[in-house]
Amino acid sequence: MNWTEYPTKRTATRSQQIAWERTIKARDKHCQIRGPRCTGQVNEADHIIPVAEGGAELDPANGQGACRTCHNDKTQAEARRGQHRWKRKPEPHPGLK
What we know:
Elements: H1 14-27, E1 44-47, E2 63-66, H2 68-85
Antiparallel strand pairs: 1-2
């Protein structure tokens, strides 16, 4: 089973996602993550609590403006956490009984 076979928690349409993103970008004028490589400019909207971890998909309170580098760093950390959640359980060797 690969990652595309896992169920998604996203239910919003693309137009709803775009409206949410515009709301976040209009509200936040500076990157809210402020990581070590932060540029300060808001290029993207980020879910504070990822949808995959139970965060509200379209709630502006669960959104923050982020620069591209901070958002990429945060997304990579979330992906690593997700890999551990979906880690495949070891299977016995088919030739051993």
